[in-house]
Amino acid sequence: MKLYYSPGVCSLSPNIIAHEIGLPLDLEKVDTKAKRTETGRDFLAINPKGYVPVLELDNGELLTEGPAIVQYVADQKPESGIAPPNGTLARSRLQEMLGYINSEIHKTYSPFFKADTPAETLAERTAYLRKRYQFVEDILAKQEWLMGDKFGLADAYLFVVTNWARGIKFDLSDFPALQAFQKRVAERPAVQAAMAAEGLTKNKVAA
User: Fold this and answer.
1) pLDDT class for 207, splitting at 50, 70, 90?
2) pTM across the whole model
3) Could you say which of 3.40.30.10, 1.20.1050.10, 2.40.180.10, 2.40.50.140 is the CATH number of the domain covering 89-188?
């Protein structure tokens, strides 16, 4: 399988999960502004949505959207236990958390990466992001990982998007449990391996 990625963006999440479970993935970097891959392919011909991640399966089919991709990757090695079995309440709880991170945290960062976003909008989005992080903080103040006592898909996703905070100068000092979580995730060997594969270091923040 091949993962189309851009360094440090949300495509880092399935890359982390693949490393965690020992699933080899070919990587092809994408210039998301020029819409070209590192081998010169037209990325819009691969994914008309124009963004990563994209997972190319061995049979040539393409899977898009990070929450779907991380679950598919995890299901290639169900014995790893990194995701609950399909059809269980625990799996639905995982999907609930992935949806929250996707819609309430990930997308809230988007205006910060646009040069023409009005200051008023940025201020409103900052306040909104703080509220959404408070929900996560309350969970992590009680347990080590989002879904309980074991690292999983939601943790990888939260780690990746929260890494963007430094780049936009979003202050996390009011969220000590979240800060401790970020440090725990960054120290995982699989996370360090995935970031190295993308040319990142654990202290480098992607935009």
Assistant:
1) very low
2) 0.95
3) 1.20.1050.10
